[in-house]
Structures are given as C-alpha cells and as structure tokens.
Design a protein that fits this description.
By secondary structure, this protein is α+β, with helices and mostly antiparallel strands. Helix content is 38%, strand content 17%.
C-alpha cells in the first residue's frame, strides 16, 4: 500500500513547485518524505553513494524561511534532487564511482551544482554510477550494482544508473546524469523515466569530472518532459569557465511545451536502429509512431546511410579520449580500476593517433549527413535501447533468434546522437512482456530542445506510460 509520504515522492517537479509556491506543501515535509523513502528502499536499489540527509533538511528549512518571507525563487525551490557522483560538490565526497577517487572532496562546486543552489533545490546526495562513467550497466566493482526498481535483479543501465533508479523509484524528484555515449538516455530508457541530453555546449561542464572532451554532455533525468524543461531552465547558459560552452540565447524551455505536435515532420530512420532489436521494442516504436501521427505530425521513414558508421566512429573517439583523460590513473594504479573499464582504457591507449584522426574526419562527414537530414525533418525518433533491462549477471541476450552481448547492446542505439551533439530525449513508450520499460528517443535539431520537449510532452499527454510506478520494492 502506498503511504501519504510516498505519494509526495511521486509528485512531479512542476506539481510540487506549484504546491510549494501556494504554501500548500512544506519543503521540509517533502524532503523528509524522500529521506524516509530512501532509507526504506536503498538496500534494494543501491542508488546512493553519499546520502546528505541533514544537509538537505537544512536546505529545505532555509527554503521554507525564504518562501515565508516572500522570497520564492521558482519551481525548484525546496525540491529534492540528486547528483551523479561526478559533479563536484565543495567539501562533499565525489568518487566518480572509482576506488582511486574514494576519498576525493573537491574544493569548489560544479557550475550545475551552483545553479541548483541558486534555484533553491535541496541536494539529497550523490548517486551511484559506472566507474569513471565508462560503461553502460552501472554494475560497479567498488560499490556493487545499481538495481532497477522495476526488477531489482536487473541492471539500471549506465553510466548514470543511480540517477535513473532514484528518480524512477521516488527517491528524488529529479537528478543529473551525464551523457557521453548514452549515459543519460540508457538508464532513462531502462528505468522508465525521461532523460534529456541537451545540445553539446548548452549546459556548462565546469566542475564535472571529464571522460571524453568532445562527447561529454550534462543533462536532467526526471519523470516528465515538463520537469526536464524546468530543470534545463535552471541549468542552461553560457559559462566562460567551460571551453566547450557556447554563448547562445537561452529561452524558457517550458514556454511552448503545450504547443502540440501538429505540423511537425518526424523522420524514422530505417538504417541501423532496427538491425538488432527485440520484437517488443520494435512494436512499441511502431505504436508510438502511430500516436504521433494521430496527434497531427507527419511521420515517415527515411534513410540516413551514415548511421551505419556511428559505432565505429564514436567508439574510436570515446575510448581514445577517455584513455587520455584517465592516463595517469591507468599508468599508476591499473589494479585499482575495474576489469571492464581498464580493458576499454587500454584499448584507447593503444589506438594509433592516425585512427583517432580518421575517426574525427569521418565524424565531420557523418555530421554533415545528419545535418542534411534535419533540413527535412524537425525531429527523428528511434528506440533508446534495443532490449528491456537484462539481469545483472546476464552476459548474452536473445534478440531475433541470435545471442547478442548484453553490454554491447546497451549503448548501440544512443551513440549516433553523441557524435552530432543534437539534443535528444529518451522517454517511456511501453513495457516488455516481462514488465520492463521501453524507451523512445526524440532527437531535434541543434539548439532545438524546445521542439523535442514539445513533442515529448505531447506524446506523454496522449499516453499513460509515464504515469506508471514500479511496485514490489523491498521496503517500498
């Protein structure tokens, strides 16, 4: 049975914000409800590395005092959130999911940490992740696996697995992930929530532990598209401290979100995305395309041959840049790095410079072809992950009568949009026969987050997938 306290934990950010502004809901009551739920469900989920209960309660009390004095800051004021454990938090442990950084406490805050503080959010803690963000399962050899709230024997996806589990299970109302090859969208797809990878350069990476300088992206993970728009409003904007930050106008991403889908042209690429895919995922995507059509969009198949080269190009760039970023750790303490991450770093370290340069050149041609497609289409849609969440100990997955490597399938369908830097949302669009969420990606034009969010919100209003909550959690 769901308690009144748990009901608060499954409010949307927008609804909680309205109630707090109207003084119908106390930030302290809201944060207390979330701390209680974390305490009851954390043994089942293993989603937090560091819980900041006392600090979050003090932030909630301060929010309550400010609001009572007429100092309401906006829809995140007093709202409990979580940060993936690679966002720097001054004086607070930031492990990056690693043994090597187990005792690291930064001397400054990340830009996004600052912006959440400015918005008045209450930070509940730092969330579990795949080691150094270099993996797509969040099975961590140092902290144990993050567990999927829909079935705790299954993975969350990664690398932002703790963020996905925490938001889906009602442990926090919103969280930040990071996305280099799909690390926001994979756990969002597998955990049944909304994950937004903004345009590369839209949100500052200052104070975010790096993995790949040309691919890393910061973005929100929430339970609705509107909530993602609210969080993006707080985070977006130019930051001179981040060399990759782009000085472009920042709009109100919530302003046109109710505008509907009618008139949009949506492409469904036939290349690549359906080569290796579970039948139930493909069927869910077909049904989603039908809903978008009924809502007034023009949805049609299209061919983008460059997609077939996405894995080769992105793979060479990601592991090479990761090896450069983490070179000192790999050289000095290889035995303290998990086997899967260490193997990928050695692969990157041994990649010839000529191969990396070829991959960057190929990326330019690839991006040109995707940009050309976006002249015709406002949006592209594709599945987020080819299968439902595998079991934690499952190495092979049956797909189309063949056995496929489960780890390889996790980021297969997300990496194409990291190369281009396009804004891309993963959102729930169905469930497998085993009760696991299915995700759909909506990719927009560069700087076109508002259009992608409008389509996501319109689809949400016409379906009920985002309203489902995982049941059966131990202590839940």
């Amino acid at each position: 049975m769901t308690s009144a306290s748990d009901e608060l934990c499954f409010l949307t950010v927008s609804e909680a914000g309205r109630r707090i502004e109207a003084r119908q809901l106390s930030p302290v009551e809201l944060v207390e409800a979330h701390i209680d739920r974390i305490e009851r469900t954390k043994p089942a989920l293993n989603s937090f590395i560091t819980l900041l209960a006392d600090e979050a309660l003090e932030q909630a009390r301060e929010a309550e005092r400010e609001i009572a004095a007429g100092g309401y800051r906006g829809p995140l004021h007093g709202v409990p959130i979580g940060l993936k454990d690679l966002y720097y938090t001054k004086g607070i442990l930031t492990t990056v999911g690693s043994k090597i950084m187990r005792d690291f406490t930064p001397g400054y805050d990340a830009a996004v940490t600052e912006r959440f503080e400015e918005a008045g959010a209450a930070l509940l803690g730092k969330l579990q992740m795949h080691e150094f963000a270099l993996g797509a399962t969040s099975v961590n050899p140092h902290d144990g696996p993050a567990r999927n709230p829909w079935d705790t024997s299954r993975i969350t996806g990664g690398s932002s697995g703790g963020s996905g589990a925490a938001v889906a299970s009602g442990q926090c109302m919103a969280a930040l992930g990071s996305d280099t090859g799909g690390s926001i969208r994979i756990p969002s797809g597998l955990c049944g929530i909304v994950g937004l990878k903004p345009t590369f350069g839209r949100v500052s990476r200052y104070g975010v532990h790096p993995l790949s300088w040309s691919l890393d992206t910061v973005g929100p993970m929430t339970r609705t598209a509107l909530d993602s728009a609210i969080v993006l409003n707080a985070l977006a904007g130019y930051d001179a401290r981040d060399p990759s930050s782009v000085d472009v106008p920042v709009e109100d991403f919530t302003a046109g979100i109710e505008g509907g889908i009618r008139g949009l042209r949506i492409g469904v690429p036939t290349d690549f995305f359906y080569d290796v895919i579970d039948e139930e995922v493909a069927a869910a995507m077909c049904e989603a395309a039908g809903v978008l059509t009924e809502l007034g969009a023009t949805v049609e198949r299209c061919s983008i041959p460059a997609l077939d080269h996405a894995l080769g190009v992105s793979g060479a760039i990601l592991v090479t840049e990761a090896a450069e970023t983490l070179f000192d750790h790999l050289r000095d303490r290889p035995e303290d790095i998990g086997a899967d991450v260490r193997a990928r770093l050695y692969l990157g370290a041994m990649t010839p410079a000529v191969d990396y340069i070829k991959a960057q050149r190929a990326r330019s041609a690839y991006n040109a072809q995707l940009a050309d497609a976006m002249k015709t289409y406002d949006l592209l849609i594709a599945p987020s992950v080819a299968v439902g969440a595998p079991r934690i100990d499952q190495e092979l997955v049956e797909v189309g009568g063949r056995r496929e490597n489960a780890l390889s399938l996790m980021s297969r369908l997300t990496r194409p949009f990291n190369l281009t830097g396009q804004p891309t949302i993963s959102m729930p669009c169905g469930f497998t026969s085993e009760g696991m969420p299915i995700g759909m990606q909506i990719a927009g034009r560069l700087w076109g987050e508002s259009t992608a969010l409008r389509a996501a919100h319109g689809y949400e209003q016409a379906t009920e997938w985002h309203t489902r909550k995982p049941g059966g959690l131990v202590g839940g």
